[in-house]
Design goal:
CATH architecture of the largest domain: 3-Layer(aba) Sandwich
Distance between the termini: 34 Å
Bound molecules: NADP nicotinamide-adenine-dinucleotide phosphate
Number of domains: 2
Order of helices and strands: EHEHEHEHEHEEHEHHHHHH
Strand order of the largest sheet: 3-2-1-4-5-6-7-8
Helix content: 40-55%
Largest sheet: 8 strands, mixed
Number of helices: 12
Radius of gyration: 21 Å
Number of strands: 8
Strand content: 15-25%
Shape: elongated
């Protein structure tokens, strides 16, 4: 019997597997991973010493929990394929963007315990923010297992399912927004004469530090901003330039575009 089966061995599955092994939540011999690509299976087997398989139904039969980590467009096919192999007591966790617990439940045997989760890319370094919602049959044990799994990746929050797409637009896609900001800041630093490496280190370290200030002080970002923007100083000049460039409007538009996209899949 395996503790967990990963269906789909892409980027997110690998990030989650890595953290589950590192945290000791599971051991390599308790994991089975499937994919359609032999190259991915070879990589997962070689790198993490887990069992690999091309058979989704067989992997599911063997596992206490099933983590669906395929693209949203591939989810329906996978659910139809594994439906008859599931049994009572197994927990089915999906990280597919936009796919509701109702959609998943409808394709699985009645009473299946389903959890929908949206982790994010920093799962790779144990600094994810994940949001969980539960299907109508998910009992306390299923919820606890999901919380345990995603706690190995970082912070966990529970949300009403109707807010999942909004959370996805913010924290699911959010790392990409910050990667672009870090790149843009470091480009601007290079323009002003800083070396590329130093410029990137300053951007990343500043981002991390600002995030920790928000978390550890519990202060509103506006108050923290006021603390560093002295009258007539450089920071307020820079902030004026950011406002003129439409930084706030850009984020309203970006999150709304991501949210709309989730409704389409
Ligand atoms: N990337 C993120 O930051 C992020 C964050 C939160 C949630 N998610 C969600 O996580 C899921 C996976 O995303 P990802 O970025 O890890 O995608 P990915 O790298 O494309 O991984 C999906 C893997 O599943 C394989 N696959 C396709 N059909 C399959 C099948 N029938 N059975 C088994 N495996 C199959 C794919 O193979 P092929 O490539 O050959 O099709 C691919 O290797 C998505 O639903 C996404 O919405 C992603």
């Amino acid at each position: 019997m395996k503790k967990i089966a990963f269906i789909g061995a892409g980027k997110m599955a690998e990030a989650i597997l890595k953290r589950l092994l590192k945290s000791g939540w599971t051991a390599a011999h308790e994991v089975v991973v499937t994919d359609v690509a032999d190259e991915r299976l070879r990589h997962m087997g070689d790198e993490y010493k887990v069992e690999v398989s091309r058979s989704n139904p067989q992997a599911v039969v063997e596992a206490e929990s099933v983590l669906l980590a395929v693209k949203p467009q591939q989810l329906e096919e996978v659910l139809r394929e594994v439906a008859t192999s599931l049994r009572q007591g197994q927990v089915v966790i999906s990280i597919a963007m936009g796919k509701t617990t109702q959609f998943i439940q409808d394709l699985l045997p009645s009473g299946t315990e389903v959890v929908r989760a949206m982790p994010n890319h920093p799962a790779m370094v144990g600094e994810a923010v994940s949001v969980l919602s539960y299907g109508s049959h998910a009992g306390e044990r299923a919820r606890a297992i999901a919380r345990e799994i995603f706690s190995c990746l970082g912070e966990v929050h529970e949300v009403e399912e109707r807010l999942q797409d909004a959370a996805m637009a913010l924290s699911g896609c959010g790392p990409a927004y910050f990667y672009v900001i870090a790149e843009a800041m470091s480009d601007a630093g290079v323009k002003l004469g800083l070396g590329r490496d130093l410029s990137l280190k300053l951007a990343a370290g500043t981002m991390l530090g600002a995030g920790k200030m928000l978390q550890e002080t519990g202060m509103h970002p506006g108050s923290l901003k006021d603390m560093v923007a002295s009258p007539g100083g450089s920071t307020i000049m820079a902030l004026e330039a950011l406002e003129e460039a439409g930084i706030r409007d850009a984020f309203y538009k970006a999150l709304t575009a991501a949210w709309k996209r989730a409704q389409e899949v």
